[in-house]
From TrEMBL:
One of its GO terms (biological process) is intracellular signal transduction. It comes from Leptobrachium leishanense (Leishan spiny toad). This is RAS p21 protein activator 4. It comes from the Eukaryota. Residues 302-512 form the Ras-GAP domain.
Length: 757
C-alpha cells in the first residue's frame, strides 16, 4: 500500500495590488512554496494591478506536507524583485475543504519572523541526580536554515530557555548547516514548568540579530531517564498583527488537497479487466453499457478529471482508441444535428482533449512552436477590427507620415496571412510526425461520422469532426495561451496576445471549413478570406493523408510511441559551478540544450536565457526519472569540500554523510508524466464508488427505456457485468479499510479523513 498526496492548484487572478513602480503600476507574478521549498513560479503579467494568470498545476506531495504559501512579487529588471504580500494555507485548513478551497484571500504583509525554514537535531531528557532532577538539552546540528546575510548564508547560534534561565551556544559563521554538539542543563522546577524553548538566531555584528525559528518542547509526560531525540521542524515566532491586511490586494485561488491510498496492482486487476472486457465486447456492437453508464452519470464538475483518468488507464492498456470509439458512437447516437457534433463538453469531448494532450504534446510543439516563436520575436502590431485600430500604435510609414486605418488593416492582414500560411504549411507537412495512436483514432472518428451522416450534403461533417478536436480544441487554445501549453515560458504582452488571438480565430475558421456563420460573425476577418479558403483545401488534403494509416503501420508506429520512454523534458539547462556558498549562487556556468528521457540524458551547446520556471521544471523532471532509483541518496552536501572541510557544514571528513536531506518528493505533474496505472485505477475506483447509487438508478432507467434492445435488457452477460462492477467496488472498499485500520504509520485523524473520501 502507498500513500499518494497531491494538490490541485489554480492561480486565477489578483486585484487591488499596490503600485510598486514609479509608473504607478506593478509587474506581478506568483511564487508557490511547499514546505518552504519553491516549486512553482507563474508568468509575469506586465503593467497591471489586477493581473490574470489562469495557471493550473498538479503537485505530488511528500507525506510530511504541512504548509502551502503563495507569494505575490513585483518583477524589477534593474533591482531586486519586491515582495507585495503572501497567502498561507496549512494542511489542516485544506483538509477542512474536501471539495477544495475556492475564493478570494487577502494578501498579508511579510513578517520576517514568520519566514522561517529548516530543522534542528535535538535530544531532550530528564536526568536524576542525588540532589535534584535536571532537564538536559543536547543541540547537535541544524539544516536548511534561512539565509539572512548578503553572503548567501547565516551565522547561527542557539538560545535555550527554561524557567526564566537562558543558555546560548557558540556562533557558527557562514553556514546554513551548522553543527554545535553542545549540551545545556537546567534544574527541573518543583512546580514542573512544562515548556522548554529552543530558538535559533542569526548573529549580526552591527544590526540586530535575525530570528531563524524555534522549537517548543512539552516536557509533560517525559519520564525520568527517558529521552526524546530527533529532527524538529523550526516554527515561526509570535505573529504580530497584520495592519496591512486587506490593503495589499487579494488573490483568487482554487486549491484542493487529495490523499489517496493506493493498493498493490493485483487488487485493481478485476476492475481494469472488467473495463477492458467491456470495450472488447462492444467493439462490434452499438455501444458499451458500462461506458454508457459512466457517460450518463458523470457530472460536469468532475467530467474532465474522470476523462483524463480513463484515457491514461486505457493508454496503459493499449486500448485508448477503442475507448474513444465507444464514446464517439454514444455521442453520435444522441446527435441529430451535425452542426452541433462534439461541440459540447461531453465525456467524449473531454476524453479526446485529454488524449491529445497526453499523446500529442510533443507533436503540438513541433507544429505550432516555430510560428509562435516568430510572433513573439517580431512583436508586430496587428489589428483587423476597425473599432480597435489604434493609429498611435502604428508609428510612421516610410514617408514619415502617420498611417491611415485602412493602411494599418492592410499591413496587419499581410502579417497574419504570413503567419497563417507558415502554420498551415507546418500542419500539412506533419503527417508522419503525428503519433500513430492519434492518427488511428482520427481514422476511426472519420469513419464513424461518415457512417452516421452518409448524405452528400454532409460531406464536410466528417472533416469538421476531426478539425473540431485538432484545430478548435488543440491547436487554437495552444496558440491563444502558449504559456499554458509550455510553448513559452512567459505570457505574451498585450500586442503579441492580440496577434495570437487573431491567428487562433483564423485557424478556427479554417477548422470550421470556412462556414458562412463564421464569416458573418466577424466580417472584419474578410482580408484573410483567400488564405482561409486555401487553408480549407490544404486541411482536407492533410486529414485524408492523416487517416490513411494501415493496421500494420499503426502497430509498428505504436511500438515507437512507448509512453514509458517519451521525452520527459527538453530544453535549456544551466549547469552551475559553485563558489563554496552551498547553493547554486555562482556566476560561472555551462549552457547546454538537454533532452531527458526515462532511458537517457543527452545534451549539446546552444544559446540560453535564464528562467526560474525552466529550472523548476528541470528539477521536477529529474526527480520523476529518479523516483525508482534504489541507490538514490537520502542526504547530500550542498556545498563543496575545500580547505579540508565541507563549506556547508564544516565537517572535516570528505566521506561523511550529507548534512542536508535530498528534495525529491515534491514534483509537478504535467502531460508528459510517465503513466501510473495503479493511481489511475484508484482514482477511477473512487469516482465509481462515489456515484454507485447513480449508476444503479441509471442502469434501471436504461433497461426500461430499451426493453426492445437485447444488448441492454436481456443479455445475461450485460446484467452480470453490472453486478460484477458493484462487487468489485465493494471488495476494493473493504480492502482499503482493512489496510488503513492495520497501518501504524497513519494517525487516527488521517484515517478518518481517508475513509471519508
Amino acid at each position: 500500500m502507498a500513500r499518494r498526496s497531491s494538490l490541485y492548484i489554480r492561480i486565477v487572478e489578483g486585484k487591488n495590488l499596490p503600485a510598486k513602480d514609479i509608473t504607478g503600476s506593478s509587474d506581478p507574478y506568483c511564487i508557490v512554496k511547499i514546505n518552504d521549498e519553491t516549486i512553482i513560479r507563474t508568468a509575469t503579467v506586465w503593467k497591471t494591478l489586477s493581473p490574470f494568470w489562469g495557471e493550473e498545476y498538479k503537485v505530488h506531495l511528500p507525506p510530511n506536507f504541512h504548509t502551502l504559501s503563495f507569494y505575490v512579487m513585483d518583477e524589477d529588471a534593474l533591482s531586486r524583485d519586491d515582495v507585495i504580500g503572501k497567502v498561507c494555507l496549512t494542511r489542516s485548513i485544506l483538509a477542512e475543504h474536501p471539495k477544495g478551497y475556492n475564493g478570494w484571500m487577502n494578501l498579508i504583509e511579510i513578517d520576517p519572523d514568520e519566514e522561517v525554514q529548516g530543522e534542528i537535531h535535538l535530544k531532550i531528557e530528564i536526568v536524576s541526580t542525588e540532589a535534584s532532577q535536571k532537564v538536559r538539552c543536547a543541540v547537535f546540528e541544524a539544516r536548511d536554515l534561512a539565509r539572512k546575510d548578503r553572503n548567501g548564508a547565516s551565522d547561527p547560534f542557539v538560545r535555550v530557555q527554561y524557567n526564566g534561565k537562558v543558555h546560548e551556544s557558540s556562533v557558527v559563521k557562514k553556514s546554513c548547516y551548522p553543527r554545535w554538539n553542545e549540551a545545556f542543563e537546567f534544574d527541573l522546577d518543583e512546580s514542573f514548568i512544562e515548556k522548554l524553548t529552543i530558538e535559533v538566531w542569526d548573529w549580526d555584528l552591527v544590526s540586530r540579530n535575525d530570528f531563524l525559528g524555534k522549537v517548543v518542547i512539552n516536557l509533560n509526560g517525559l519520564q525520568t531517564d527517558l529521552q526524546l531525540e530527533g529532527w524538529f521542524r523550526l516554527s515561526p515566532g509570535k505573529s504580530k498583527a497584520n495592519v496591512d491586511e486587506g490593503n495589499l490586494g487579494s488573490l483568487q485561488l482554487h486549491v484542493r488537497l487529495r490523499d489517496e491510498t493506493v493498493l498493490p496492482s493485483n487488487y485493481y486487476q478485476p476492475l481494469v479487466q472488467l473495463l477492458c472486457q467491456e470495450l472488447k465486447k462492444s467493439h462490434q456492437e452499438k455501444s458499451g453499457h458500462l461506458i454508457a453508464l459512466i457517460d450518463e452519470t458523470t457530472s460536469a464538475e468532475c467530467r474532465q478529471e474522470i476523462a483524463t483518468n480513463l484515457i491514461k488507464l486505457f493508454l496503459g492498456q493499449g486500448m485508448a482508441k477503442e475507448f474513444l470509439d465507444v464514446l464517439f458512437r454514444l455521442e453520435l447516437d444522441k446527435t441529430n444535428e451535425p452542426n452541433t457534433l462534439f461541440r459540447s463538453n461531453s465525456l467524449a469531448s473531454k476524453s479526446m482533449e485529454s488524449f491529445l494532450k497526453v499523446a500529442g504534446t510533443q507533436y503540438l510543439h513541433i507544429v505550432v512552436g516555430p510560428t509562435i516563436n516568430r510572433i513573439f520575436e517580431e512583436k508586430k502590431y496587428v489589428e483587423l477590427d476597425p473599432s480597435k485600430v489604434e493609429i498611435k500604435e502604428a508609428g510612421c510609414s516610410g514617408l514619415h507620415r502617420i498611417q491611415t486605418e485602412s493602411e494599418i488593416i492592410l499591413q496587419s492582414a499581410q502579417f497574419l496571412q504570413s503567419y497563417l500560411t507558415d502554420l498551415l504549411i507546418a500542419i500539412a507537412k506533419s503527417v508522419k510526425l503525428c503519433p500513430a495512436t492519434i492518427r488511428a483514432t482520427f481514422r476511426q472518428l472519420f469513419k464513424r461520422v461518415g457512417e452516421r451522416f452518409p448524405e452528400n450534403k454532409h460531406t464536410n461533417v466528417k472533416f469538421i469532426a476531426v478539425t473540431s478536436f485538432l484545430c478548435l480544441r488543440f491547436f487554437s487554445p495552444a496558440i491563444m495561451s502558449p504559456k499554458l501549453f509550455h510553448l513559452r515560458e512567459k505570457h505574451a504582452d498585450a500586442r503579441t496576445s492580440r496577434t495570437l488571438l487573431l491567428l487562433a480565430k483564423a485557424i478556427q475558421n479554417v477548422g470550421n471549413m470556412d462556414a458562412p456563420a463564421s464569416r458573418a460573425k466577424e466580417s472584419w476577418m474578410a482580408p484573410l478570406q483567400p488564405t482561409i479558403q486555401q487553408g480549407v483545401s490544404q486541411l482536407k488534403e492533410f486529414i485524408e493523408k492523416l487517416i490513411d494509416i494501415e493496421e500494420k503501420e499503426e502497430l509498428d508506429l505504436q511500438k515507437a510511441l512507448n509512453l514509458q520512454t517519451l521525452t520527459v523534458k527538453e530544453g535549456q539547462l544551466m549547469i552551475y559551478r559553485t563558489k563554496c556558498k552551498g547553493y547554486l549562487l555562482a556566476s560561472s556556468f555551462k549552457k547546454l540544450f538537454v533532452s531527458l528521457t526515462a532511458d537517457a540524458l543527452s545534451f549539446a551547446k546552444t544559446p540560453y536565457s535564464k528562467c526560474v520556471n525552466e529550472l523548476n521544471q528541470w528539477l521536477s523532471a529529474l526527480r520523476k526519472v529518479c523516483v525508482n532509483n534504489n541507490d538514490m541518496l537520502c542526504s547530500y552536501h550542498p556545498g563543496v569540500f575545500k580547505g579540508e572541510k565541507w563549506s556547508c557544514c564544516h565537517q572535516k571528513e570528505k566521506g561523511v554523510a550529507g548534512c542536508d536531506k535530498t528534495r525529491h518528493e515534491v514534483t509537478l505533474q504535467d502531460w508528459n508524466d510517465l503513466l501510473d496505472p495503479d493511481l489511475e485505477a484508484q482514482l477511477i475506483f473512487r469516482h465509481l464508488f462515489g456515484m454507485r447509487e447513480s449508476l444503479k438508478e441509471k442502469h434501471l432507467e436504461l433497461t426500461k427505456q430499451n426493453v426492445d434492445n437485447p444488448p441492454l435488457s436481456t443479455d445475461p452477460e450485460r446484467k452480470n457485468s453490472i453486478t460484477q462492477l458493484f462487487e468489485i467496488l465493494q471488495d476494493l472498499e473493504a480492502t482499503q479499510n482493512s489496510f488503513l485500520a492495520d497501518s501504524p504509520s497513519i494517525s487516527d485523524s488521517e484515517k478518518k479523513c481517508l475513509l471519508a473520501l
